[in-house]
Amino acid sequence: MNLVTNDHPTTGGVDVPDIDIELSLTPPTQGPWWRSIAAYVRWASGFATKRGRNRETDQFQTGDWTVDALENGERVFDPNYSSSPLYGHVKPERRVRGLARWPKGTGTTYVFFDGYADGFEQRYRDFGKDKVASLSAGDAFKVYAQSKAPEGRCAWDLEVLADRPVVWHKLGDFSAGGTMTDSSGNGYSGAYSSGGASITGLVAESSDAAVDFNGTTDYARAATNYNFATLPNAYAFEFWFKTSQVPASRATLMARNGLERVQLSSAGLLKFAEGSPIGLSSAAVNDGLTHHCVYDFDGTTGVLYIDGVSQTTTGAIVTDTGLPPGLLLGGSPSLTNTTFDGAIDEFAFYEHGLGAARVLAHYNAGKAGISGAWGNEDTGARMGRYLDFVPVVASDRDIDSPCSSTCGPQSTFSGTVLDQVLDAANTEAAQTYMGIDGAMSSDDHFRVVHRSRSSAVTATRSSTSQGTFGPNDLQYADVLFDYNEQRIYNEAKVTREGGTEQYAYDTASQVDYFTRTYTKTGLLSASDNDALAHAQWAVDRFADPESRITGLVLKPQRDPDNLYPHALGREIGDRITVKDPTDTVSIVAMIEGVEHSLAGGEWTTVWRLSVADTRAYWILNTSALDTDTRLGF
Length: 633
Hints:
alpha+beta; 10 helices
């Protein structure tokens, strides 16, 4: 980090935090390698960011950030200028982030934006006398809005894609002597021998076929242009198989560079060999049934899995070098009388380990399909599956578990990944946003945060006011109070996918304010009772008009030591108390959206708010009950 101190009215203004704006020099699929570009910012023009979601209106907004003016006199941000110190890195989708530190010098550092560049606009004013560039960016939700949900994919496909295989032969395109397609997208095609036959596939709900090998001469060569001579430091491979006949001595299911790697013994046991046996199945697999085989090496320990269960292994590995590339399935022309008699399907190779949890997820998906692998589960688990579509690595997600609502089985997908994420968020009726679930100073990058409904009641930052803002407390610059009919809903009609409409209402509110209907359809809820709970929550929450605060504006330079820790440190989901200018009306609110801007040397923070429900709720496994208590889900 290279945080810049700005204490001049024509640059950053007085009492502006130390600021750094950083650009990653690596592609988005790799970990960021940050390079500061703060020295190029024309601070008088400044920047503006916003992110968040208004829970009451269900207006889900993708976060954005604009840096209005970057000094470009030396063509630093010209993507075609090879002498630029950033040449080759001024590209769309490069990761960018903004950091602010208060107090200056040795204070706390906060992330105020983290996302991906849309692009760098260049402007040449007065025939090039003034060269200026600008940066626009969106948070990761923008990426999800651009990613299409994998329509028509079976559960197995989804799990494989989530782990980014380097080679993936589905083996559904068999033709004697033909090309074996690589479905990973990396172009590592293979080749079939002159023998074999196409049969029904071995994984659930897949329309792809498998290849049946005859036990004498049939084999297939995987990824002919991938160098299998030396394996990476960590790796995994997997495939499905089914035996037709027990071999007299042994049969080779997979060979690498002319040596047997996966063998079936005459006793029907499966073993993995890298020069010598290191894995052995605990039971015979020559039963004519479909089995899943994975060998997973994390860089230290190798484990053989059969049907999702780890088998006996020694943990040793021998890596062959100096041999020509090549990986064979079903047999090997360099080994006689060892061709496998049976079917093989869905071969995949990964340049990283999978781990036990992912191996089991792959097995469950291939064995049971969507109906088994995507059965009843809470919204957090379902959200995690959607994020696997992109994919979003574990370090970039913070998902509550368990969540308050349960999703039912799902077998079809439509729209974008963001559409799927919104389905889970709406089913939970809670907060989903890009940011940090906790103190803004606790980490150096944003995550996908999905909070359960109960978190808004039980989490300390959401149940206890984190600050009081008013004329005699922490002073705001502007506040907008509102009291109207726009947020009144006294009947709710909620329908889950495949369910019947659930109805809740409040008669007294309907008498006072006419009937105003809250409608949700297509929720992922597992049961009608879950949908009914959602309807009851909506009526209970919105039956009466509220004195609402739609926005709170802070000018932290007016009281920097007291206001900056809140302006930079408060996060979506934090509870605050706001008093009106007369110090007579006090409203407890929840932060739903956060905006920051720097212009003309003045820092402004705006919080978009909803009224926090102050009524008592009962959370399961607690006993604080009274007559006004409601179920907190």
